[in-house]
Amino acid sequence: EIIWCRIAGSDNVHPSNFKSIGFEPSWFISDHFSASCDCMMIARWHGTDIEGVLFQKYFQLLNEHGLFNNINDANEFIKYYLSFDWTEPGEYEIIEVFIQ
Questions:
Q1: Coil, helix or strand for 62?
Q2: 3-23 confidence digits (pLDDT tens)
Q3: Vertex 94, ends 92 and 100: CA angle to 5°?
């Protein structure tokens, strides 16, 4: 898959043969860390609660690409994620992901 990304809401025009597939809270400029992956997909670095229900509401909002369908859901998720003392703090931005 070939993807193209931009900071959500920016004026950068996506390539004409690409379509938006969702939104991701991420460290876009530096390490490209994914908060949603950290606690809902591949809980390798920080993990999550043993019962697996802490992020269930947000997991159910992910689309078939593992992304949020809108900026508001992505923003709500990252605020919730950062409310815990065991998560990865950082300068998150909401990224819009496109696929060819």
A1: strand
A2: 898 999 899 999 999 999 999
A3: 130
Of the candidates 76, 48, 49, 82, the residue with the CA atom closest to the CA atom of residue 62: 76
User: For residues 36 and 25, is the Cβ–Cβ distance under 8 A?
Assistant: yes
- Measured in whole angstroms, how far is the alpha carbon of residue 93 from the centre of its chain? 9
Compute the distance between CA of residue 56 and CA of residue 73 in angstroms, rounded to an integer: 13
CA separation for the pair 65, 24 (Å, rounded): 10
Tokens (6 digits) for 76? 């709500």
Other C-beta atoms within 10 Å of 81: how many?
22
The structure's pTM equals: 0.86
| Nearest C-alpha neighbor of 24 from the set 62, 79, 52, 80 | 62
**In whole angstroms, what is the distance from residue 98 CA to residue 19 CA?**
5
Taking the alpha carbons at both ends of the chain, their separation in whole angstroms is 7
